[in-house]
Amino acid sequence: MERVLIAGCGYVGSALAARLAADGGEVWGMRRSPAGLPADVRPLAADLRDAATLGRLPEGLTSVFYTAAADGGSEDDYRAVYVDGPRNLLAALAAQGQRPRRVIFTSSTSVYGQSGGEWVDEESPAEPAGFRGRRMLEGESIILGGPFPGVVLRLGGIYGPGRTSYIDRVRSGAAECPAANTYTNRIHRDDCAGALRHLMHLPSPHPVYIGVDRAPADSCEVLHWLAATLGQPAPRRADAAVPPRSNKRCRSARLAFSGYTFLYPTYREGFASLL
C-alpha cells in the first residue's frame, strides 16, 4: 500500500490527496491548520518553515510531495517556503530513517526568464529575472540534490474551481487585452493533480517536467473566446504598451510523451468545465 505525505496540502495538494486516497493509499495532508482536508486524508499539523514541528512524520512513507505555496509575495516569503521548507523536510525525513522512493516538488515556469514569445522546454536555459524564479530554482536544486530521488514539475498558471479570474473579468466587463500580443501558459488544477499522480508511478522519470496544457495561447485570444462563449462584448485592447512580466510558450511534450493524458488539453476544455 502506498503511504504518501503531501507537504503543503493546499489547492493542488488537496486535489491530489483526494485522488490518491481514492486509489486506496494512506495519505497524510500536512499544513499548519489541517482542518478541511478531503475525506479519507489524514491531517498532520506542521509548519514546513519550522524544523522543530517536523519531528514526528508518519513512518514508512513511500512517496512525498512538496506542494506548498508562499503566503505572500516578498522574497522572504519565497525563501521560507521554497528554500527553507524543502531543506527542513528532507532533513526531517533523513533523520527519521525514511526511505521514500521519490520526492516530487511543484515548481513554476517562472524559472524561465524568456519574454519574447520563445518556445521553452525542459532543456531551455532557466535564468529567471526575478527573485520568485530564483528561489524556486534554489528549491529545485535542494530536492534534486537531496538524499532521495527527486522529480520537479514546473507548473504554469493554475486555474480551476475557485480560481476563475479570467472568467470573472470578462463577465464584469473589466477584461482588457494587452497592447501587444502576450503568450500565456496555464494548467487546470485537476491536471496538476493528475500529472503529479502520474509522476509518482512513472518507472524512470526525468528529473524535470513542465506542467502546462498542450496549447499556450495569446491572452487576448483567451479573453475573446471567453467573451464569445459568455455572450459578452469583446474586450478592448489597451492603449499603452506595458512590458509583460512573462511572454513565452511552454511545451509539455515531455510530460505527454511519458504517457500522461490531459483532462483539459487546452484552455477551451478547461474553462468550459467551469462555465
Entry summary:
The chain is α/β, with parallel strands linked by helices.
Helical stretch tally: 8
Main CATH class:
Alpha Beta
Helix content: 25-40%
Number of strands: 13
Rg, alpha carbons:
19 Å
- As an assembly, this protein is single chain
Based on helices, strands and strand pairing, what is the structural class? Answer: alpha/beta
What do the pLDDT scores average to?
A: 95
Largest sheet: 7 strands, parallel
Query: Strand share of the residues?
Result: 15-25%
- Poorly predicted parts: none
Query: How far do the termini sit from each other?
Result: 38 Å
What number of domains?
1
- Look up the CATH topology: Rossmann fold
- In CATH, the homologous superfamily goes by the name NAD(P)-binding Rossmann-like Domain
Question: Any idea what the shape is?
Answer: globular
CATH architecture: 3-Layer(aba) Sandwich
Commentary on this structure:
- The chain has 275 residues and is of the alpha/beta class.
- The chain has one domain: 3-Layer(aba) Sandwich (Rossmann fold).
- 33% of the residues lie in helices and 19% in strands.
- A 7-stranded parallel β-sheet has the order 3-2-1-4-5-7-11, sandwiched between helices. Strands 6-13 form a two-stranded parallel ribbon. A two-stranded parallel sheet has the order 8-10.
- Helix 1 packs across helix 5 and helix 4 crosses helix 6.
- The longest helix has 21 residues.
- The protein is globular and about 60 Å long.
- It starts with a strand and ends with a helix.
